[in-house]
Amino acid sequence: MEPILLSLWSGLPVLLLHVVTTLLLLGIGLWVYEKVTPFKELDLIRVGNVTASVTFAGAILGIAIPLAFAMNASLGLLDLIVWGVVTVALQAIAYLICDFVLKDMQARVENNELAAGVVIMAVKLAVGAVIAAAVAG
User: Fold this and answer.
1) In angstroms, what CA-CA distances link 112 with 4, 21, 56, 59, 118?
2) In principle, which of 31, 58, 72, 103 could form an S-S bond with 121, CB 3.0–4.6 Å?
3) What residue stretch is flagged as signal peptide (predicted)?
């Protein structure tokens, strides 16, 4: 068998396991995010609230970026899971701090004030980038 095919045959299962694990961690992270937020962005998105979609997009990317770096830096599956959980927890903590500092954001998102949503999205992306850099070492 050709070396490239042997490499693919041996590496593909590991790749798929890491991708699926990371996507599961992303799903869990978004579930945790929905639980710690005082409003339900998905419900607001379903009724056409653009601001909620912007903030939720920030959450998706803010969680996915550090998870991608955790997958890249991990030494194995357990390492990926541990660092994935840490990145999700840090992002949730960052949201809670942001919510505390920017006290009226819940009402502003519910009222579909896009300016507030863009600030929240930027904070989520910035925190995600910082966490990703920390994970990458």
Assistant:
1) 52, 34, 13, 17, 11
2) 58
3) none
Angle of the 50-73 helix axis to the 114-136 helix axis, nearest 10: 0
| 106-128 per-position pLDDT tens digit | 889 999 999 989 988 998 999 99
**What would the two tokens of residue 14 be?**
């590991």
Q: Measured on CA atoms in the order 71, 72, 77, 81, is the torsion positive or negative?
A: negative
Q: What is the pLDDT of residue 17?
A: 93
For 25-59, the DSSP string reads HHHHHHHHHHHHSSS-HHHHHHTT-HHHHHHHHHH
Looking up tokens 């009402």 gives 107
Evaluate the CA torsion angle 120, 122, 128, 134 in order and state its sign.
Answer: negative
Amino acid sitting at position 99? D
